[in-house]
Design goal:
Mean pLDDT: 92
Radius of gyration: 14 Å
Low-confidence stretches: none
Strand content: 5-15%
Number of domains: 1
Distance between the termini: 40 Å
Shape: globular
Number of strands: 4
Number of helices: 5
Structural class: mainly alpha
Order of helices and strands: EEHEEHHHH
Helix content: 55-70%
């Protein structure tokens, strides 16, 4: 298994599992608005999954000012993650966990 490092805003925290990294990215970093469709998504690997998986390359390149190297890099990260986890299933599970945690905090306040 690979060691995973958070690459959001030079965070660089290390994780032993992809699940740990994804949980961190959902909970510890602000979610972002997709520049193509406006959907609010967690930054990091889930954002990569969204823009590469949902939108065509051309739309991604235009919206983000990306080039072919940027796309290849993100596709590589996505493939590495997919070797260890089903990203869509992890998204549903971790977002549900995060939302339950938020609901619990709101009830306690």
């Amino acid at each position: 298994m690979a060691e995973w490092i958070c690459g959001i805003a030079e965070c660089e925290i290390h994780f032993g599992t992809i699940e740990g990294l994804l949980r961190h990215q959902i909970k510890e970093h602000p979610h972002v608005s997709c520049k193509v469709c406006g959907e609010e998504i967690p930054d990091g690997i889930f954002a990569i999954q969204h823009v590469i998986g949902v939108h065509r390359r051309v739309k991604y390149m235009l919206a983000y000012g990306a080039n072919s190297n940027d796309i290849r890099y993100r596709e590589h990260i996505k493939k590495l993650a997919e070797l260890e986890i089903d990203i869509d299933t992890a998204y549903e599970s971790l977002m549900s966990e995060w939302e339950e945690e938020i609901d619990g905090l709101l009830k306690d306040s």
